[in-house]
Write a structure and sequence with these properties.
The complex is a heterodimer of chains A (about 280) and B (about 220). Chain A is of the alpha+beta class. Chain A is built from eleven helices and ten strands. Chain A folds into two domains: about 1-160, no CATH class; about 165-280, 2-Layer Sandwich (Beta Polymerase, domain 2), CATH 3.30.460. Chain A starts with a helix and ends in a 12-residue tail after the last strand. With about 220 residues, chain B is an all-alpha fold. The radius of gyration of chain B is 26 Å and the shape is elongated. The chains are: A alpha+beta (about 280), B mainly alpha (about 220). At the A-B interface, α2, β2, α6, α8 and α10 of A face α5, α7, α12, α13 and β1 of B.
């Protein structure tokens, strides 16, 4: 009898979860629990509970966002009982744009919550059982497929971002600086760099080898046959000058190309140039 | 008859193929080369994957120029894809450095001679293409009965001789899927380069001050 009742309840939970998707949120006061070492708390939340001598802290947050993939959310709760949620946190308006642009990989932009000043804090994840979610009121975080994809990409990037070796980040420093220079310091080849679709780099035979050949793929957009009437090769010369062979990176090639001209192997064998800001190295 | 050792020696001693390639060539191909010396058709003993891709008909061709009408970058990419050759090997076809090849592909002007050479190379590869870059590369680098290596002939500009030697390939047409919409392409595009190289890691949100100790209940078994 009890088993039958439970199965009805499980079915009800499953029905309630059919409407939920990755990026959906619950707003209002919510609790977020994390574990700590009471002898050495390193966060304000940890310090606030230190005196109690416990190793679990429960913090109030402005809401939670589901980061589990939609296909797992809608599977039966008896088969897939867990969900992962991240806290929603408030950020200043001027920071919101940085998060939307992807400058802050620790946060994810949720378009429908931007007006409330809320973003997902990807540094913290909590596991909840599905019946907890079924009782929440769903607030969508995004509206379109493109927005959903951007949110998913932010989640992926937080976890799969390649940690380039330190000597490579040192080598790439000048190229990175040229990419980021703005306004009155701006150079033509810096603007050309920023007109690219993406920059990828391949290390052969591998990143950890003691003698490495680097190949930079500067991927331009199909329609940009040249940049401002100048051949891309002119800029390539300048860009390669910013990454001279150093240490174990003893041979360095580069090419401006299109996605169509790159082979699938070239793409898979290379990593997107994704680096921490020069002043915040040590993360990533 | 060319022995396996001789074939290996030839690979090692020619500019066309180094020891690296040798390790990639299946033994069955080399045996084919050996049998060629006995008057047996090399093709008859090529491994099945090569044979199935390459039912060739040897013939002489003429008029190997091709109107690419393409920018050099696309032509170099096609040459690389069709030939399966490495950048260093491609550079040897032009007797230039790999760096020069990358610069041509990036839009640097080629001399008319090199441009013509590129177009003719693409034309040859289109003709002899058996549908697989790897198979084409093996074909270009394996010496024929006389010890001639098609790669070396290409480097010397003896295009028609290569086609005559290798015959016409019968590659399957490449699948050209319909184009994505601009919106779909935009949604799949990565973040702009300048955003990706300036990632900021500091905490910027206002942390709540309301926190309390939570109680835990230990459960022995997982589940």
């Amino acid at each position: 009898m009890a088993a039958e009742t439970n199965s009805e309840l499980y079915a009800e939970i499953d029905r309630a979860l059919q409407a939920w998707r990755q990026g959906d949120c619950v707003l209002g006061e919510q609790s977020f629990v994390h574990r700590l070492d009471p002898s050495l708390p390193v966060t304000d939340i940890g310090r606030a509970v230190q005196e109690a001598g416990v190793d679990l802290a429960e913090a109030e947050v402005a809401g939670l966002v589901v980061v589990t993939q939609s296909c797992d959310i809608v599977r039966p709760c008896t088969e897939r009982p867990y969900l992962e949620v991240c806290p929603l946190v408030e950020v200043a308006a001027e920071r919101m744009r940085e998060i939307e642009r992807g400058r802050r990989p620790a946060y994810a932009f949720l378009p429908l919550l931007a007006s409330r000043g809320l973003v997902a804090d990807l540094n913290r994840v909590m596991t909840v059982e599905k019946p907890v979610l079924a009782k929440w009121r769903r607030t969508p975080g995004w509206n379109t497929d493109a927005e959903a994809r951007m949110f998913a990409l932010a989640l992926a990037r937080k976890r799969v971002r390649f940690a380039f070796p330190d000597d490579f980040t040192a080598l790439a420093k000048n190229l990175q600086g040229r990419l980021m220079e703005k306004h009155d310091k701006e150079s033509v080849d810096g603007r050309a760099l920023r007109a690219l679709r993406e920059i990828r780099v391949q290390a052969a035979p591998s990143w950890d080898h003691n003698s490495v050949t680097l190949t930079f793929w500067f991927v331009r957009r199909d329609e940009d046959i040249d940049f401002g009437g100048s051949s891309w090769s002119t800029f390539l010369e300048s860009w390669l000058g910013l990454v001279p062979p150093t240490g174990r990176f003893n041979t360095i090639f580069g090419q401006v190309t299109t996605l169509a001209d790159l082979t699938a192997a070239d793409y898979v064998n290379s990593d997107p140039l994704d680096l921490d800001h020069l002043s915040s190295r040590g993360g990533g | 008859m060319i022995s396996l050792a001789e074939a290996r020696e030839r690979f090692d001693s020619t500019s066309a193929a180094g020891t690296m390639l040798m390790s990639q060539i299946p033994q069955s191909i080399l045996i084919g080369v050996m049998l060629a010396g006995l008057g047996t058709s090399t093709e008859a003993v090529l491994p099945i994957d090569l044979m199935s891709l390459s039912p060739r008909v040897a013939q002489t061709t003429s008029g190997l120029s091709v109107s690419l009408g393409d920018r050099p970058g696309a032509a170099i990419a096609e040459l690389r894809r069709l030939s399966g050759l490495t950048w260093d090997q491609l550079a040897r076809l032009f007797r230039v450095s790999r760096r020069s090849l990358h610069f041509w592909a990036s839009g640097k002007a080629m001399t008319p001679t090199n441009e013509e050479h590129l177009q003719r190379l693409v034309a040859v590869l289109r003709k002899v293409d058996c549908g697989s870059g790897n198979a084409n590369r093996a074909m270009l680098l394996i010496p024929n009965d006389n010890g001639t290596i098609p790669f070396d002939l290409l480097a010397e500009g003896r295009y028609e001789q290569v086609v005559s030697l290798l015959g016409h390939g019968r590659s399957f047409p490449r699948v050209m899927p319909p184009q994505l919409s601009n919106e779909a392409k935009a949604a799949r595009a990565p973040r702009p380069p300048e955003e990706l190289v300036g990632a900021l890691q500091d905490q910027i949100h206002r942390e709540t001050r309301v926190a309390r100790a939570a109680k835990s209940v230990k459960v022995r078994s997982g589940g």
